Amino acid sequence: MTDGAPGPTARRRRASRRLWIPAALGAIALAVALGVDVAQSKVEAAESVAASPSVTGDDASSLGPSTAPDLDEAASASAIRAAGDAAPAGVCTPEPVPTTTVKAGVSVLPTDSIASTETLDPSQTGLAVTYAAPAFSADGKRLTTLLRHDGSSTVELFSTPTMTSMVALGSDWVSAPVEWDPSGTTAAVARRMKDGSLELVTVDGAHGTVSFLAKFPASIAAGIAWSDDGACVAIAVTDDLSAASDTPRYEDYEVAVVRVSDGAIAWIGTGAYPEFLPSGDVVYIGPRANGRLAYWRASTDGLERTMIGALSEDPGEPRLSADRSAIAYVVEGDELEVRVAPTGTRGSRAVARIEGATWGYAKWMPDDSSLLVTGGLPSGRTRLWTVDIETGEVTRVRTPGLTRAERISYAAPVPDGSGIVAMVNATRDGAPASHPVLLSQGRSTDLGKAVAGWASCAPTWSPDGDALVTCHGRSTVDGKTVSGRLVVTRR
User: Fold this and answer.
1) 206 contacts: CB under 8 Å, gap ≥ 6
2) Lesser CB count within 10 Å: N end or C end of the chain?
3) E strand or H helix at 81, and its extent?
4) 182 membership: H or E segment, kind and range
5) ∠ at Cα 42 (39, 48), nearest 5°?
6) If residue 135 lies in a helix (H) or strand (E), which one and from where to where?
7) With 70 as the cut, is the pLDDT of residue 33 above it?
8) What b/e readout covers 422-450, taking b as 16+ CB neighbours within 10 angstroms?
9) How far apart are alpha carbons 193 and 131 in whole angstroms?
10) CA 98 to CA 392: how far, in whole Å?
11) In 10 A of CB 78, how many CB atoms?
12) pLDDT per residue as tens digits for the range 217-260
């Protein structure tokens, strides 16, 4: 799920035709207005950096939209079939799941005696970048990260043991969603091309080989997800006008499921933030007939669609629990309302209210029994709380030792449960800088020297806990642009 969720509005649109179409035929031209969230992009120089070629498909004739029922309640299969043809149900239903799991150990910290820390410097490319969105493969052997430039970006794949760059893929937008499959061997990347089309590709983690999967004309990606068996990729797309809007709308998003074996595409509903459930269904946020929002659950062919939870407000950044049984989100206002919606039944409930915070987002703690909430105060300062989802108890995470000039930004729970690591922004010698701090048992421990640039991502560990990365944005020092850094700590 991505940042910057769009808000609800009353304007409706016609749903696109629900058909399976081979990607070999080329692209699906969405003759409907789509709308986006945050997407990712590329730099021209990145194409020359890329180690592997990208294979593109041939364009095909477009398909016009057909009118689909605008359902406020659970949609029946027959009602959706009336909107257009579709493939048989269960196209991506998980079979034996080839999920890669590794035994999580103690999470490495920069202060560990056996840990080594290095800083990656992208200055050799001649580009001033901001690092963001690090993601480890399930086996922890590969790492993808996003390098943001002016109006474009690059997805880079590294070998974790050596931090050797294996491939770089450019995207002509500020973002490019990346998601690793459950086996930890393949990454899916949705990148904007120079001609305005959106190209969905897969990248082999072992060799960096890039393979074409599907193409969407004049589109921007709003997030992608893999099915448990690696058979399908769900993607939300929109047009760039909606993507650039300050108030993007969920009714301008379309969710598609792409079959990896042949690139076939099924349009399953209007909405964004798709995630696969263990059953093989896709859950996403979309509009209802009255313009309000809801969580929807759909089969991968679009034949069945059910509203599993109505939303009173824009949920901001929804987060799926590790076991995928519930979604947590906050409702912003004069106070922060923390809510949880189960994915298996209909409805949602208010877990807690945090007074004084007017914006924020929630993350699940490692055991899925509580949430870490990052919230902003009217003063501009950021605070952290934990929320027990059963009792509703709210506990402020104290930050002793931090000065008034130091500001908390991104934070993440340590996977082994030993505490929370927060990124701290401060001005050093007149220049912005950031560093991680461990918050545990009422104490605050600095975890490293400050690095130039504000923090630009939450601390991210590999699944086995043996590697940790932090991101730092580009900055201006004495009138000169200083490129961002990716700091890597390994055991």
Assistant:
1) 185
2) C
3) helix 77-81
4) none
5) 160
6) strand 130-136
7) no
8) bbbbeeeeeebbbbbbbbeeeebeebbeb
9) 20
10) 37
11) 8
12) 989 898 899 998 899 999 999 887 666 666 657 888 899 999 99
In the numeric block, which tokens belong to residue 97?
A: 């799941």
Spatial separation of the C-alpha atoms in residues 485 and 111, rounded to whole Å: 19
What does the alpha-carbon distance between residue 65 and residue 444 come to, in Å, rounded to a whole number?
A: 56
Sheet-wide strand order for 164-171: 130-136, 142-148, 153-159, 164-171
For residue 239, what pLDDT is reported? 82
List residues bridging with 168 in a β-sheet.
156
Residue 335 has pLDDT above 50, yes or no: yes
CA atoms in the 13 A half-sphere facing the CB of 307: 19
- For residue 477 the two structure tokens come to 């020092």
**Distance, CA of 114 to CA of 490 (rounded, Å):** 9
E strands of 250-292, at which residues?
254-259, 265-269, 272-276, 282-287
CA distance 350 to 134: 31
| Tokens representing residue 17 in the block | 């035709």
What does residue 345 show for φ and ψ, rounded to 5 degrees? -135, 170
pLDDT at 14: 25
Strands 475-477 and 232-238: unpaired
Residue 83 CA to residue 70 CA, distance in Å, equals 10
Report pTM: 0.78
Alpha-carbon span 375 to 382, nearest angstrom? 6
Q: Which residue has the tokens 């939209």?
A: 65
Q: Which of 468, 378, 480 is nearest to 421 (CA)?
A: 468
| Side-chain half-sphere CA neighbours of 34 within 13 A | 31
pLDDT tier for residue 42 given thresholds of 50, 70 and 90 = very low
Q: Using alpha carbons only, what angle is made at residue 360 by residues 358 and 364, rounded to the nearest 5 degrees?
A: 145
Residues 396 and 383: their CA atoms lie apart, in Å, by 8
Sheet strands (E) in 160-271: 164-171, 178-180, 186-192, 198-204, 210-216, 220-226, 232-238, 254-259, 265-269
CA-CA distance, 361 to 238, in Å (whole number)?
24
Here the tokens at position 87 are 């493939």
Distance, in Å, from the CA atom of 60 to the CA atom of 72, rounded to the nearest integer, reads: 34
How far apart CA 198 and CA 381 sit, in angstroms, is 38
350 with 387: CB under 8 angstroms?
A: no
How far is it, in rounded angstroms, from Cα 298 to Cα 89?
10
| Look-up of token digits 């701090």 | 437
Give the E-state strand segments of 343-472 in sequence order: 349-355, 359-364, 370-376, 382-388, 394-396, 407-413, 420-428, 431-440, 443-446, 451-452, 460-461, 467-472
